[in-house]
């Protein structure tokens, strides 16, 4: 199926939804409305720069950006329009003629749960924290060319860039570097912990719609609406985020009305849920790529012919049906279709076992060696896909086998300071809807999600020029060249872009898909 980016953004793809109940059985009195949510586990921390299980899902409810994407309605559903950037915590901005200095004027009267007003000092403090931690927020700064953030008045903050950036405004829609209530956070800082990171493991202090009230490790976290929130108060005044490790139990709780939202149903459960009138299921095209990655520092993957052969050996349509139950689109670029600049024209790896064998022979491949595909349980597709890919490689003579490792090992071995897995399954994608951000994230030698350490000076040069130019036609051409180079080098066995599904009570409405694939509780309400 041909997919146009605008179709995805505006929601013209077919959306499956269970029919709502005749009466909203879960509607509650206007005072004290509670959203009950079941997730695989309770959040293990609330510092967006140090992501742990459950962190991103919850901090996006607490910390909001200086800007936000526009929205459109299509077929009765809201969607983001990344072609439109609006003010959010910042109400306006100006930029210098060379594009290297931006001044953002903050919205006045914005207050945290603790009652402290947001000022430019809070923005400066949050960016300083991310710079100091040198983790996710620092990567956002790097790819956006931000070198310094400084409060120049109570409500004005200045961003200094090393080069012009067309990514900056989109990056500022994110939850990090976060705008903290630094007045409150500093109360919990110590000389040994100047950023109060220990306190942030069990506390929040933001200017967003929700605030963490309590957390019990391994059990649940309870959030309450920020009574001082600068927009209209949320429909749900309280959110209980419960740990329910069993996917089957989460489904049972949803169907029985004991919870109103579950995090990411298993794909094999979606078809069943779609026929249940008590439940609403909705989908959105995802921004991630499920893949099997090859590390070019390890033989035989240092040979491009081997990497290309492995791509020809894998039957992607069979994976879509057998692993993803039809809820995925074949991947044809490192840039997902939801992002402007996606170009599938360089994909040449349709299933062709004969060509795979010919390339392996040309590469003098050693058929006596065993190739291991490492996988974990971070994503529920990893095991079945790794097993099927191993079987398809075996069909062309490769001694391949799938080997399971722990989730913690997968994360540790894919981290920038290690990256020692020769071949493994993983899923990544951009949370900024921009092709330069996507390629920097996944294919630049400094990309934090470049987990197999693909390093090609030609690729770095293309991406670096693209992130420093305001010449749109040139930028687009650079991204075409980058996608062509990446596809020719074939560092991944590209498989699919998975569809994102959410399941909720039949009377819950308002879900708007976001690039990070997490709902915003502020959007949700009972019909």
From TrEMBL:
Ranges for domain Solute-binding protein family: 85-449
Pfam families: SBP_bac_5
GO MF annotation terms: peptide transmembrane transporter activity
Broad class of where this protein is predominantly found: periplasm
Subcellular location: Periplasm
InterPro entries, A to Z: Peptide/Ni-bd, SBP_5, SBP_5_dom, TAT_signal
Keyword annotations of the record: Periplasm, Signal, Transport
Any one GO cellular component localisation term in the record: ATP-binding cassette (ABC) transporter complex
Biological process terms in GO annotation: dipeptide transport
Role, per record: Part of the ABC transporter complex GsiABCD involved in glutathione import. Binds glutathione.
UniProt cross-references to PANTHER family, sorted A to Z: GLUTATHIONE-BINDING PROTEIN GSIB, PERIPLASMIC BINDING COMPONENT OF ABC TRANSPORTER
Family statement drawn from the similarity comment of this UniProt entry: Belongs to the bacterial solute-binding protein 5 family.
Protein name as it appears in the record: Glutathione-binding protein GsiB
UniProt organism field: Falsiroseomonas stagni DSM 19981
Taxonomic lineage from the root: Bacteria, Pseudomonadati, Pseudomonadota, Alphaproteobacteria, Acetobacterales
């Amino acid at each position: 199926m041909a997919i146009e980016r605008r179709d995805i953004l505006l929601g013209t793809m077919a959306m499956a939804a269970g029919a709502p109940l005749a009466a909203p059985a879960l509607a509650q009195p206007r005072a004290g409305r509670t959203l009950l949510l079941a997730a695989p586990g309770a959040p293990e921390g609330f510092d967006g720069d140090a992501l742990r299980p459950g962190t991103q899902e919850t901090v996006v409810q607490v910390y909001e950006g200086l800007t936000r994407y526009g929205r459109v309605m299509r077929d009765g559903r809201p969607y983001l329009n990344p072609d439109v950037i609006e003010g959010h915590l910042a109400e306006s901005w100006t930029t210098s003629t060379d594009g290297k200095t931006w001044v953002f004027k903050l919205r006045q009267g914005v207050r945290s749960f603790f009652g402290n007003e947001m000022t430019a000092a809070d923005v400066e403090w949050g960016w300083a924290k991310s710079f100091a931690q040198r983790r996710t927020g620092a990567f956002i700064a790097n790819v956006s060319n931000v070198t310094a953030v400084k409060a120049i008045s109570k409500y004005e903050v200045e961003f200094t860039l090393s080069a012009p950036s067309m990514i900056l405004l989109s990056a500022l829609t994110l939850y990090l570097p976060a705008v903290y209530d630094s007045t409150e956070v500093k109360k919990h800082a110590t000389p040994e912990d100047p950023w109060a990171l220990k306190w942030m493991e069990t506390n929040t202090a933001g200017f967003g719609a929700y605030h963490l009230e309590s957390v019990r490790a391994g059990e649940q976290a309870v959030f309450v609406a920020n009574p001082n929130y600068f927009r209209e108060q949320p429909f749900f005044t309280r959110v209980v985020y419960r740990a329910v490790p069993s996917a089957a139990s989460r489904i049972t709780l949803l169907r029985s009305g004991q919870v109103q939202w579950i995090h990411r149903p298993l794909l094999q459960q979606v078809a069943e849920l779609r026929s249940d009138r008590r439940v609403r299921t909705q989908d959105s095209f995802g921004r991630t790529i499920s893949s099997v990655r090859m590390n070019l520092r390890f033989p035989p993957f240092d040979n491009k012919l081997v990497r290309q052969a492995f791509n020809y050996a894998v039957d992607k349509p069979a994976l879509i049906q057998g692993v993803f139950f039809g809820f995925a689109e074949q991947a044809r670029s490192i840039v997902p279709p939801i992002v402007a600049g996606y170009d599938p024209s360089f994909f040449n790896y349709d299933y062709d076992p004969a060509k795979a064998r010919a390339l392996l022979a040309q590469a003098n491949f050693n058929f006596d060696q065993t190739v291991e595909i490492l996988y974990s349980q971070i994503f529920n597709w990893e095991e079945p896909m790794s097993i099927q890919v191993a079987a398809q490689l075996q069909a062309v003579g490769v001694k391949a086998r799938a080997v399971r490792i722990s989730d913690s090992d997968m994360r540790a071995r894919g981290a920038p300071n290690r990256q020692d897995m020769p071949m493994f399954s993983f899923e990544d994608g951009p949370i900024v809807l921009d092709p330069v951000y996507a390629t920097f994230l996944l294919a630049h030698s400094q990309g934090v999600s470049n987990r197999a350490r693909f390093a090609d000076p030609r690729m770095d040069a293309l991406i670096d020029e693209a992130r420093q130019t305001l010449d749109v036609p040139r930028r687009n051409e650079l991204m075409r060249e980058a996608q062509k180079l990446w596809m020719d080098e074939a560092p991944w066995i590209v498989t699919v872009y998975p569809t994102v599904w959410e399941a909720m009570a039949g009377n819950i409405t308002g879900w708007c898909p976001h690039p990070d694939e997490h709902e915003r509780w502020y959007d949700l309400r009972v019909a």
